[in-house]
């Protein structure tokens, strides 16, 4: 899931690489690509329109941050807007003040309700609750048996109608289950209800009656993510016919294009609370909009890096450094500035970790793990042994100055020579890049 979307979004960002400043035309073109990517992923049209409009507005009005280049800024905005359409904050179960907490499952047949009841049961048990699963799906042949089987796998009790005793009336089963639970001190009750292959009035009525009987703290609409746009229509029908508090997406392990996941929270105004991604009981988790957004962008680490950079980088300092690099062929950018930039990068964490987080560095794992932090310490020591004048203008570094610096830093003169010549080369390169508009963030090539 999301593979195609991820590829297309990344392609949209890639075409911006190397651009220092984005023109309105660049932004328009990128937004167009984002729009196509979302539509191809089968995202609801109104959601797409709103999404793209928000990204465009925010990108046009974006404050130039010293820490991020324009592409990083767009990635960040798209990430944040994805989080928003996925529902924003992670939402978990609202527990009843006085137990039991009642959770009712509703949705079409085959959506995965019964399987979910088992998953929820196990998850609740792991959280220290004592849940009871209630078989109020009396429509589908075998549904009761199926719930008993998953209940056993999950290690939780199942309340099922006795044959001949109220069979056929799920409302009665629900009422008896509630009484049973109150006697046995279960603190969470999960009610599995019947679904139909398609939406129909009778199904809605029955679900609404069960709901009125058990008065759930949470009614969860369970929907198969594979059905794409239909998920949105079904959700609307359930919202009207039964009403629900949260959504559970199932079959996220399938090859659906992701449209359902990306549309449903926005269209229904209800959060996605859980996600199911397989047939086994453990294939299930609380839904985190932020994690899902990073997964869609496929740049979880990149986003972490962006966040850290924002926290660590002093925008004013970075802007000054960038200004020095862009004027006079970088002549004003001295070793002191270099040291300052290097120290900012280091504040973000060990260099090997920072490089490891850059996209496309996956194949370079070995080189990355060989980055010698001591080498960086040495560079710092050398620069710190220089006078301010020497740092500003390394050209004045004659032989005796170099010997003094080497002594002060506890290194060989050749180390000093090496650093100075590498600095001169690097400054030339950075200046060329910067005149192309690179922001004051060294060491993040390509993004
Ligand atoms: P119900 O009719 O809503 O109760 O649906 P079921 O729980 O019986 O599930 C219908 C089918 O979908 C079963 O074969 C399940 O094993 C399968 N299923 C449920 N959840 C998932 C999931 O997250 N991923 C996959 N691949 N299959 C699932």
TrEMBL record:
It holds the Pfam family SRP54. One of its GO terms (cellular component) is signal recognition particle. GO terms for molecular function: 7S RNA binding; GTP binding; GTPase activity. InterPro entries: AAA+_ATPase (IPR003593), P-loop_NTPase (IPR027417), Signal_recog_part_SRP54_M_sf (IPR036891), Signal_recog_particl_SRP54_hlx (IPR013822), Signal_recog_particle_SRP54_M (IPR004125), SRP (IPR004780), SRP54 (IPR022941), SRP54_GTPase_dom (IPR000897). GTP binds at residues 107-114, 192-196, 250-253. Part of the signal recognition particle protein translocation system, which is composed of SRP and FtsY. This is Signal recognition particle protein.
